[in-house]
What does this fold into?
Amino acid sequence: MSGIKQIALLPGDGIGPEVAAAAVTVLDAVVPGRLAYTEHLFGGISIDAHGVAMTDATLEACRTADAVLLAAVGGPKWDTTDPDRPRPEQGLLGLRKGLGLFANLRPVRAIEALVDASPLREERIAGTDLLVVRELTGGIYFGEKRRTAEFASDLCEYSVAEVERIARTAFRAARRKVTSVDKANVLETSRLWREVVVRVHAEEFPDVTLEHLLVDNAAMQLVANPADFDVIVTENLFGDILSDEAAMITGSIGMLPSASLGNPDGPGLFEPVHGSAPDIAGRGIANPLAMFLSAALMLRHAFDWESEATSVESAVDRALENGLRTRDLGGTATTAEATEAVLSHLS
Ligand code: NAD
Ligand code: IPM
Ligand code: MN
It folds into this structure.
């Protein structure tokens, strides 16, 4: 068997292909000859070609790959409120569900060189190093959807087993504390969530500190006292919203990577938290760093290539220390210049 890892590469739409190509350049420099890519149409571009955001063949190809590296999907061309028309995002949701990736890890670190790029004050964000553990295959995203001319509904559902497994992921990842975020003062799913988290904690992880925050308060604490957090565990929709908010601790949504894991028998999915940024697509000015950091998470989580993962992360840090700033970070660097800067700092 060759040691070459097979990567399903899904560039997607908008800035997706721009940052995906940049990431491949960086990976080729860090692990030359050790990855082989097969590219697939995904999202809006797949709708144009095949009428669906993800074909069965693409899902199957992802399933048999060693890892899936995805950039971003979506755009105004495919925006519709008609439930009978396909949307790019359906590909993403179908892929996460189809691969059984229930645990989405979104690390958020205040990078010292970037404190001036954050809208938050330096003394608030200093030392922030948190992880959002977002449940990814349940909740309101996947419950029954209904729509008539006069009515619409989205069902939010969680089972005990779904909460148990994401709670375990969070407790295992914690260094000091888990903050479970819910809306247990209103939602039945949140009351179940809280009971299950409390029980898993008591039975399996009594040495980790556990606290609970209601999601509205959590949204406030995240900008008021971000350094107080270690691991935040929360349901699908809350995790989506809180992670975009948390991105501003770093200065830009263009900085946040993610790893989606949970199926020991299949590949993980690695993608930036940001979307296809239609407002800047095609101009060569997207920040590729979230994509590079997602590639680093792939090296670490999919292949256990820890030193290579660290090498990408350190190169990103050093490039920023040496003044790299794309437009979202208040500078003028293009995607190509950002890529060159990171390449030049690889050790
Ligand atoms: P977005 O994340 O695409 O963009 C929000 C803002 O952040 C925009 O101003 C954009 O220019 C900026 N931005 C995002 N990434 C950037 C980067 N790498 N460099 C510089 N600036 C960046 O969110 P949106 O505008 O709400 O969504 C646009 C489309 O993307 C929608 O169709 C949405 O569904 C989709 N989306 C996809 C994903 C994904 O594929 N994982 C994630 C989020 C949104
Ligand atoms: C994300 C995105 C997706 C989500 C959309 C595009 C379906 O916002 O990955 O954060 O809501 O999960
Ligand atoms: Mn999101």
